[in-house]
Specification:
Elements: E1 17-21, E2 27-28, E3 48-49, H1 53-62, E4 66-70, H2 78-87, E5 94-96, H3 116-123, H4 129-136
Parallel strand pairs: 1-4, 4-5
Antiparallel strand pairs: 2-3
The structure holds magnesium ion.
Residues 21, 23-25 line the site of magnesium ion.
Length: 139
Amino acid sequence: MRKIKGLNAFSIGKRLTIAIDIDGTVADCSKVDFRQVNRRPDEFLRAEPIKGSLEAVKRLYKDGHTIIFHTSRNFGSKRATKKWLIKHGFPFHHLIMDKFVAHVYIDDRAINGCNWHSVMKAIRKSDLPGRIARRKGVI
Ligand SMILES: [Mg+2]
């Protein structure tokens, strides 16, 4: 893969490198007991694919984009995470177990973009996913 100076994972061309989060993005973890996952990573196998995610990822993969799943799950759950993706038929090129845990990610390359007016409005909302996670004690 040809690299562009200053960046670290891009090839030149029309195809995109797409980073996709797992929990809450493609995996509905409402049945997962997060208190158990460090001891029993297979607990993650209780997650269900989020409606529409499988079809979308398959489409992106088929269109030739590079699919990279990345997650803040601990490294010890890599095998279970890969097993879950394969079990449900998610195609991908890489699985990266390297994303620090945060309640909110602000990123100019996120699909939602980075309009600071919208960011400041959204970050105060009670239905912000990070706020919901904090209330539930997930993180
Ligand atoms: Mg997530």
